[in-house]
């Protein structure tokens, strides 16, 4: 049967795995659910027993073979119920029908049914009445015992219907009546006619008692009992008449009758798990080791992993550190061909082409001279304002130019600060020999001893890799070839921690010496930082060139209108005692209104040029106030071990941006500053710059 095969596989699995709340959790569901493997096995056997019960009930029992098959099925079912009750009694599912009470009743009932089959077999075989009475008496007694057990059980835990108890009672009475009748026949054979009358009367009394409960009995059973009642009445009448007329034997009292000896032939068939090997065949997990050994091996693997995993991680970390150090040394070796990088060389050529630091210093000096000349002219004009008429006529125009030069002076200070910040960097970029020496300092030449250090480090890294592979190989052998675990197995890993620690100490000592000699990645990083510094200096240099050109252009443009204003004031001053010359007749042609009419003096101040020719509407020297502060990008901090070649105030932020657009003019983007060419300028610092 498939149920037995399934049960057998469950039994074999239990040897390999452990199920339950604290182990492997598998939910088994029947009328109730549980994680217990015992519950699953009990339910499986219970259903197998029920199947045997149905087979026995469906046998016709009309011949000896049919009776034997039915009896065998009932005995197997009874034996299974008894085995489940003793071995797999479910305590985890109290609401299940598979409980102690039900299993006990079913064991007794189907044992009684098997005993009943022996009665039927005896009747077919025409067994002697005395022996048949003994078998029938035991059958009736077994049914009565079942009835008493059902009656005493808890109805809430019972799975039996209302007819179950009365039918047990009726069957018990039926076979007790049969036993009395067979015993009466046996007494008649022995000439005990008085005993015959008494036993028949006892049988009739039992029948009447059974019919009292006939309301819930099976109809066939009730019919049999009524038939017994009718037969017994006739037999009692005939037996009394024969005894009174013919035999005249005393009729004994019921209490003095000898009890019928019981013979129990039905014994539940023992359920043997050992017999399942032929039924289930090869167990599903027969190749797995037993659970106890598996549990021990699991503990061993857990302990092994707690040792092996940290050792592997320690090896990996140190191998990474050593490999990076060796790689950095190799990169340094590749940089032995020293030359100035192409981008730095292009910047140097551009600065040299524009005259370098000397040209910038000359331009800054020119700006100071032009500013001083403009300031001196304005100072001389201010002395004329002692005359109230002159002051009233020219005060607004003088104030306009004073404000322009004052703003330009503030811009000059910002330009000076920018120049001072990058002065030393420009000096470095102006000298090829200085640049070459600086880049040579980033490429120390390794000695023979340095090469030996790297060789020793490579050997230690390879040794550590071999130790790691050895550990992994031992662990892999454990996984592929599990055997009986013994305590000394874990000790084979004891040698590795000391080997790893010794290797790491030796590596760290070599790596420290390599870093002290500057053979690692430090020089490469230092070179990158220096190139970044030069890039920033060149960006600021291009800005400075544009600012210088704009400053020179501003002072060159403003000198002429201020000079004209000075001449007009002088002319007006000379004409005060005599007839005054009108302003329009004395003004130069380029000071007349663009329309040719009206005064060149407006409420907003003195106009140097016609409106369509107004210069410098933007930039550091524009008439309008400055709109936004100068936002300089943060500079990296170059902290060299040697003396710092860069000015300490290089990262100083200007107070504000003197140029509204805050960008390099188009004429200076991507090319050297050419300087502004103007006429009548006292000096152009870029006119003689090398091309």
From TrEMBL:
GO terms for biological process: protein transport to vacuole involved in ubiquitin-dependent protein catabolic process via the multivesicular body sorting pathway. Residues 602-691 are annotated as: Disordered. PROSITE patterns: BRO1. Keywords: Cytoplasm, Endosome. Residues 672-691 have a biased composition (Polar residues). The keyword Cytoplasm applies. Pfam families: ALIX_LYPXL_bnd, BRO1. GO terms for cellular component: endosome. It is found in: Cytoplasm; Endosome. Residues 602-671 have a biased composition (Low complexity). Residues 1-307 form the BRO1 domain. This is BRO domain-containing protein 1. It comes from Rozella allomycis (strain CSF55).
């Amino acid at each position: 049967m498939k149920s037995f095969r399934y049960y057998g596989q469950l039994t074999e699995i239990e040897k390999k795995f452990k199920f339950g709340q604290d182990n492997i959790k598998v939910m088994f569901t029947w009328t109730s659910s549980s994680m217990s493997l015992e519950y699953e096995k009990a339910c499986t056997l219970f259903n197998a027993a029920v199947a045997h019960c149905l087979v026995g009930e469906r046998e016709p029992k009309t011949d000896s073979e049919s009776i034997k098959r039915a009896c065998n099925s009932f005995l197997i079912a009874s034996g299974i119920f008894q085995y489940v009750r003793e071995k797999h009694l479910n305590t985890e599912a109290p609401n299940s029908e598979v409980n102690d009470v039900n299993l006990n009743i079913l064991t007794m009932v189907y044992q009684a049914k098997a005993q009943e089959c022996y009665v039927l077999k005896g009747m077919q075989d025409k067994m002697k009445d005395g022996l048949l009475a003994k078998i029938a008496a035991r059958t009736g007694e077994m049914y009565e015992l079942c009835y008493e057990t059902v009656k005493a059980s808890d109805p809430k835990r019972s799975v039996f219907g209302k007819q179950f108890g009365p039918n047990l009672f009726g069957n018990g009475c039926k076979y007790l009546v049969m036993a009395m009748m067979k015993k009466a026949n046996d007494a008649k054979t022995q000439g005990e006619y008085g005993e015959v009358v008494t036993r028949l009367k006892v049988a009739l009394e039992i029948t009447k008692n059974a019919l009292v409960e006939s309301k819930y009995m099976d109809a066939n059973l009730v019919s049999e009992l009524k038939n017994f009642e009718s037969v017994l009445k006739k037999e009692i009448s005939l037996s009394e008449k024969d005894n009174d007329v013919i035999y005249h034997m005393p009729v004994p009292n019921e209490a003095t009758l000898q009890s019928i000896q019981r013979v129990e032939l039905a014994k539940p068939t023992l359920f043997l798990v050992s017999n399942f090997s032929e039924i289930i065949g090869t167990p599903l997990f027969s190749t797995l080791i037993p659970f106890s050994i598996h549990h021990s091996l699991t503990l061993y693997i857990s302990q092994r992993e707690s040792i092996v995993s940290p050792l592997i991680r320690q090896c990996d970390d140190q191998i990474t550190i050593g490999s990076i150090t060796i790689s950095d040394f190799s990169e340094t070796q590749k940089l032995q061909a020293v030359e100035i990088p192409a981008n730095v060389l292009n910047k140097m050529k551009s600065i040299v082409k524009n005259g370098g630091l000397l040209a910038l210093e000359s331009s800054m000096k020119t700006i100071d001279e032009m500013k001083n000349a403009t300031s001196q002219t304005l100072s001389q004009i201010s002395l004329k304002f002692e005359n109230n008429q002159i002051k009233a006529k020219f005060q607004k125009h003088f104030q306009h130019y004073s404000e322009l030069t004052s703003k330009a002076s503030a811009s000059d200070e910002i330009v000076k600060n920018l120049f001072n910040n990058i002065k030393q960097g420009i000096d470095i970029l102006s000298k090829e020999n200085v640049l070459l020496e600086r880049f040579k300092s980033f490429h120390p030449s390794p000695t023979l001893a340095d090469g030996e250090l790297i060789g020793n480090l490579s050997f230690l890294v390879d040794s550590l890799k071999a130790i790691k592979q050895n550990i992994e190989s031992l662990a892999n052998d454990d996984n592929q070839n599990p055997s009986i675990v013994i305590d000394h197995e874990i000790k084979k890993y004891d040698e590795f921690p000391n080997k790893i620690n010794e290797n790491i100490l030796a590596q760290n000592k070599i790596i420290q010496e390599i870093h002290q000699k500057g053979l690692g990645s430090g020089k490469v990083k230092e070179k990158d930082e220096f190139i970044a510094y030069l890039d920033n200096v060149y960006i600021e240099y291009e800005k400075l060139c544009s600012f210088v050109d704009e400053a020179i252009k501003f002072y060159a443009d403003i000198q002429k209108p201020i000079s004209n204003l000075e001449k007009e004031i002088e002319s007006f001053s000379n004409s005060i005692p005599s007839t005054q010359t009108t302003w329009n007749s004395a003004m130069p042609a380029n000071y007349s209104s663009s329309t040719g009419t009206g005064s060149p003096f407006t409420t907003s101040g003195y106009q140097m040029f016609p409106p369509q020719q107004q210069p410098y509407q933007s930039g550091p020297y524009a008439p309008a106030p400055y709109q936004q502060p100068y936002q300089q990008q943060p500079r990296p901090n170059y902290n060299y071990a040697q003396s710092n070649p860069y000015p300490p105030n290089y990262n100083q932020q200007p107070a504000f941006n003197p140029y509204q657009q805050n960008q390099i003019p188009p004429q200076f983007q991507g090319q050297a500053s050419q300087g502004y060419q103007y006429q009548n300028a006292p000096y152009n610092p870029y006119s003689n710059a090398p091309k």
